[in-house]
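Notebook entry, structure prediction.
Reason for the run: the old model in the group folder had no record of what sequence produced it. Starting over properly, with the input documented here first.
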Amino acid sequence: MTAETGTPDPHVPSGHPVNGLDEVVHQRVRLGILAIAHEARRVEFGYLRTELDLTAGNLSKHLSVLETAGLIEVEKGYEGRRGRTWITLTPTGSVALAEEIKRLKLLITQVESTDIPASRRTDDQVRAPSSPGGPRASSS
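New structure, fully documented this time:
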């Protein structure tokens, strides 16, 4: 719905912008993995572990979730005698990341368009942006 007219926006799923966030993609670590993989053609496991400040086991679990969802491909191989794991973003992963970014932008736009300066805000009431005459939520 648009805040101005109260009519449905055909480009936005019904409800609040957070309703369209993908739980698989939105989780902080997985979003970071997808963003880094988007920036590179192929990213090495150790680089992800360092950049995202994760243990190897924790990173492996997140990679498994993303791989199961078809958002990344995991390739194991050798560089010299050392085993290596490389991660690439799939076309499905690229679409999922783009959709997540789109939803986050909608959320940011909604929040920014409804910001009320602190000097005008009262402590005992807050209005929902899509229901100017609707019920008020108490902050206590």
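Summary: Confidence is low (pLDDT under 50) at residues 1-5, 131-140.
The old model has been moved to the deprecated folder.
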